[in-house]
Amino acid sequence: MLLKFAFQDFLDDRKFKNTTKVNIRNYLTMLGEFVEYCNENQVVNVEDITTSTIRSYLLKCQDKGNNAGTINTKLMRIRAFFNYMVECEVVKLSPAKKVKLLKEDVKIEVFSDEQINQMLNFYRRIKRREKSYCAYRDYMIIVTILGTGIRRGELIGLKWSDIDLENQSISVFGKTRRRETLPLTSKLTKEFLAYRTYCKQHWGKGNEFVFTKRDYTKLTENSLMLMFKYLRQKMNFPNVRVSPHTFRHTFCHRLAMSGMSAFAIQKLMRHQNISVTMKYVAMWGNELREQNDRFNPLNNLDI
């Protein structure tokens, strides 16, 4: 079967299975790059792709500077494609099966208190000086992710009907394609109350979406990422990337450092598998050791 037709068939199957738009885009980009590599090397049929072909492609990606995490992500996309090819009986065995994932030196960046305050104060100053809706909105976006750990897609789709201020909870349509309810702290509830009042006064009417663009239309992924790009340039932090995911990681980090159980963190982060949660907790092992050395109850006992 011609690779270009198999690739399109695979994408159509993902769409039919209601795969998220983000994942479809990732398949289109990452798997498309592999298909292009195969065509450049005169490998035009699915059946002609070997384990060696896949390894050569990944080595080329490595030479281009792709880190272990990116290489592994690309390999997982290729594996998914060949699993589908096996399912369709185009090939008997997946050539990607024998290609091992690389070991990752995973370091998750989080914000310090000083950095968080610096960003929030930046928006507070603009809000006071310019009476800017976007400054207040961007401030609330940061506070919302820090207070709930929600993902950027969930943030973009967040509606006022999803926020129960009376019962202090927020409902999100998560990664697992189901609605999940998260608790809100009293502090974040007050922030939402004040922000909702401001929005009604500023626009003179209500909007179903919590966060909108300057023209009062629904916030898009592109406009959200432009906001973080602008903030990244203004802050110029040397050791941490300013992105929605870094705020989510910071939320998780603070939960772990507070001594919260891995099970509770899993529920708040909405990880499908607790092993993902444990991976995060393990990364902060040195900090946990330092905290334990400082606050262990045995420290004050004469033994």
From TrEMBL:
Top-level lineage group: Bacteria
Pfam families: Phage_int_SAM_1, Phage_integrase
One of the GO BP terms on file: DNA recombination
Domain Tyr recombinase: 106-293
InterPro entries the record matches: CB (IPR044068), DNA_brk_join_enz (IPR011010), Integrase-like_cat_sf (IPR013762), Integrase_catalytic (IPR002104), Integrase_recombinase_N (IPR010998), Integrase_SAM-like_N (IPR004107), Tyrosine_recombinase_XerCD (IPR050090)
Domain annotation Core-binding (CB): ranges: 1-86
Single GO MF descriptor: DNA binding
Keyword entries, A-Z: DNA integration, DNA recombination, DNA-binding
Protein known as: Integrase
Protein species of origin: Paenibacillus xylanivorans
